[in-house]
Amino acid sequence: MFNSHRRLFLGASFSGLASYPLFGQEPSPKERNKEEEDEKKDPLPAKAVKEDAGFQPATLFLTWHKDPTTTMDVQWVGTQGETADIKVYYTSDPIPVPVKGAPKNPNEKKVNWVVCNTIIKPYPMSDFKVFRAEIAGLTPNTDYSFRIGKASPIYKFRTMPAKANDSIHFIEGGDCGINSAAIANNIMAAKQDPMFAIIGGDLGYDNGKSVDVSLSFLRNYSKHMVTKDGRMIPMITCIGNHEVLGSYEQKREKGTFFYPLFDGLYPETGYATLEFGDYLSLVLLDTGHTTPIAGEQTKWLEETLKARIDHPNTLVINHVPCYPSYRNPIGVPAKDGKSGKLGTGEGQRIHWVPLFEKYRVPLVLEHHDHTFKRTKPLLNGMPDSNGVLYLGDGSWGRIRNPRTPDCRALTAFVCDFNPQKSL
Ligand SMILES: [Fe+2]
Ligand SMILES: [Fe+2]
Boundaries of each Calcineurin-like phosphoesterase domain copy (predicted)? Predict the structure, then answer.
């Protein structure tokens, strides 16, 4: 049986996600057409640059490749020479707000800015570059201000707590796209005031070939994934088929924009772990897009889960679901000399599910099928109260009608997920 504190943790963690409106409706054909038109256009122009605000990269976002209790990666995509000073300056000191006409307070404490160098890497198929400042040595559970150079606006982030003494609340989803539903979901997600967001693949649907789509996704995220008090919400990702030119069984370089953006966390492989102090371990997998499911990745997964068997909270995130809520899980057997085809998630069910069960993973977060799903706890493909829970299935912006209940015996709950209906 799973430790009770694992369950308590999850109960607290998913309160934000569960508070989403669950019973949206499928968009009408007219609405669908509008969404498709929206996707062809760049839905959000770059942020309007205020005359006095200096450098404001519209793609600015936060992510992590090391412990989120003491680090933060500040990233943006832009061109070299846009601004003279690309170093990131950060501080935990309060920033005094100037009052127009008020005399300067001579006793006001000077803000102590710390400087972090920014690395520059190519952004493929364009003249753009990825700019990344890897800030380390931060104090846990602390609000920081930062700026790029001396003239950018001042942005805010918060480090994760050192210990999980209170609830850890975050948003999880996938299959976003750049349409109006994705933007609506960004807005709803930010309203939950999450500590961070996990996007489990199929981010913008750039398909490894559209610079414009990849940048539109970042611009949308940058603009809307900000809390009411102005704190930027860090993004953690894993790879999906729509990050990759060719979708499956491709070489790493076909994840054209994904790896240049996220190779801090994925420097060599398509899978990784992210450790939050001693209380949360995220295991992020590649469901066959640039790394085979079987072989090295499965061997690494077993070692990783085995090493964490006593860890209080080890969660797995993958893209293609082990237990799909929409696509067909049943494959086509080889026949008459023709090769067969695995059903959706069949490779994961063969190679990974036994490990999730053996090492008592409490929760697997799944995506790709574009519905909102909760399975029954499952052991060996059968409902069992001591089993593994699978939540999904990726409808941050992509939405479809789920299958009828008789087609999904293993799911406790499935619906579509359309935030536009409530906005
Ligand atoms: Fe998708
Ligand atoms: Fe997908």
Answer: 188-370
Rounded to the nearest whole angstrom, what is the distance from the C-alpha of residue 319 to the centroid of ligand 2? 7
Contact assessment for residue 199 and residue 213, using Cβ atoms and an 8 Å cutoff: no
**Distance, CA 239 to ligand 2 centroid (Å)?**
9
Relative to the alpha carbon of 205, which ligand is closest?
Answer: 1
Give 406's contacts (C-beta < 8 A, 6+ positions apart). Answer: none
pLDDT digits (tens, 9 = 90+) for 55-83: 999 999 999 999 999 999 999 999 999 99
For residue 247, the ligand closest to its alpha carbon is 2
Q: How far is the CA of 164 from the centre of ligand 1 (A)?
A: 32
Is residue 235 a part of any domain in this protein? yes
User: From the CA of 398, how far away is ligand 1's center (Å)?
Assistant: 7
- Phi and psi at residue 157, in whole multiples of 5°? -145, 165
What is the distance between the alpha carbons of residues 132 and 129, in angstroms, rounded to a whole number? 10
Task: Output the CA 177–ligand 1 centroid distance in Å.
Answer: 8
| Distance separating alpha carbons of residues 396 and 412, to the nearest angstrom | 20
- 146-172 pLDDT, tens digit each: 999 988 999 999 999 999 888 999 999
Residues 32 and 44: their CA atoms lie apart, in Å, by 19
* 105 found inside a domain: no
Domain carrying residue 256? 4-96+111-422
How many domains does the chain fold into? 1
Q: How far apart are CA 412 and CA 409, in angstroms?
A: 8
Ligand nearest to the CA of 289: 2
User: Does 141 fall in a domain?
Assistant: yes
**3-state secondary structure at position 252:** helix
Chain position carrying tokens 């003494």 = 165
Dist. CA 109–CA 93, nearest whole Å: 9
CATH number of 271's domain: 3.60.21.10
Residue 53: inside a domain, yes or no? yes
Q: What is the 173 CA–ligand 1 centroid distance (Å)?
A: 11
